[in-house]
Amino acid sequence: MSGHSKWSKIKHQKGADDVKRGNLFTKLTREIIVAAKDGGGDPATNFRLRLAIQKARDSNMPMDNIDRAIKKGTGDLEAGSLTEITLEGYGPSGTAILVSALSDNRNRTIQEVRSTFTRHGGSLGESGCVSWIFESRGVININAENVDADELALAAIDAGAEDVQVESGFVEVITKPDALEKVRAALEKQKVKIESSELQMVPKTLVKLDDKAAMQALKLLEKLEEIDDVQNVYSNADIPDSVLEAMQA
């Protein structure tokens, strides 16, 4: 899993961009609607809804928006029909890419994803071509600029984390799916400020890229995430530090 935190850090910074906040809230709303529709509107008994609400609150989404989304999911308010779609493909140097989407028009979404892959040096693949490379894991992101990252990492492991990645000023904690909430709660008890926590598809293996391929891969991943219907994009690209620093400059 080493190296996954680099892409997570870039994604988190982009998600925090106020310019894109409207688009982010739309994605969060859709996730809450589908979670409430599938498992009911009570977060105490609906694990997926509970995580969706927590993610929305981490992103400073107003509670009124969250409540309306839940009511749309339970049918108390009118809402369009959304279909869950998982698409798989390849990026530069054979990197694996997994795309999850929520759409009211499956054919439109597939076409948009396919054309984005093609325009940016990738290709859409068949179902199952890369999904085996990924596994569901809880991912907790922490801004560690003002704390001892190594101590924080030890605290996360003691709380039950499976793996911890420490980057400059940033810590990513990996847990088994059913341990995500427990580890988050344990860290919060120690006054650790959690920036985000969610279930993600984490790659089992990584493909190391040179600077040119890494920049091309990041461009593809960014364009995929900008598609309105796309909820999440996962990749096994190992981004060199030099490219990460250039992105943050």
Detailed description of the structure:
It is a single chain. The chain has helices spanning 4-15, 21-39, 47-58, 63-74, 106-119, 149-158, 180-189, 211-225, 241-248, and strands at residues 83-90, 96-103, 123-124, 134-143, 163-167, 170-175, 194-203, 207-208, 230-235, 237-238. The chain is an alpha+beta fold. The protein has three domains: 4-74, Orthogonal Bundle (Arc Repressor Mutant, subunit A); 83-132 and 206-239, 2-Layer Sandwich (Alpha-Beta Plaits), CATH 3.30.70; 134-203, Alpha-Beta Plaits, CATH 3.30.70.980. It has a four-stranded antiparallel sheet with strand order 3-1-2-9. Strands 5-6-4-7 form a four-stranded antiparallel sheet, sandwiched between helices. A two-stranded parallel sheet has the order 8-10. It starts with a helix and ends with a helix. The mean pLDDT is 89.
Break the fold down into its secondary structure elements and pairings.
Blueprint: H1 4-15, H2 21-39, H3 47-58, H4 63-74, E1 83-90, E2 96-103, H5 106-119, E3 123-124, E4 134-143, H6 149-158, E5 163-167, E6 170-175, H7 180-189, E7 194-203, E8 207-208, H8 211-225, E9 230-235, E10 237-238, H9 241-248
Parallel strand pairs: 8-10
Antiparallel strand pairs: 1-2, 1-3, 2-9, 4-6, 4-7, 5-6
Helix pairs in contact: 2-3, 2-4
Share of helix, binned:
40-55%
Unreliable sequence segments? none
How much β-strand is present in the residues?
15-25%
CATH class of the largest domain: Alpha Beta
Oligomer: single chain
Number of domains: 3
Find the CATH superfamily of the largest domain: YebC, transcriptional regulation domain
At the fold tier of CATH, the topology name of the largest domain is: Alpha-Beta Plaits
What is the global morphology?
globular
The helix-strand sequence is: HHHHEEHEEHEEHEEHEEH
Using only CA atoms, what is the Rg?
A: 18 Å
Question: Structural class of the secondary structure composition?
Answer: alpha+beta
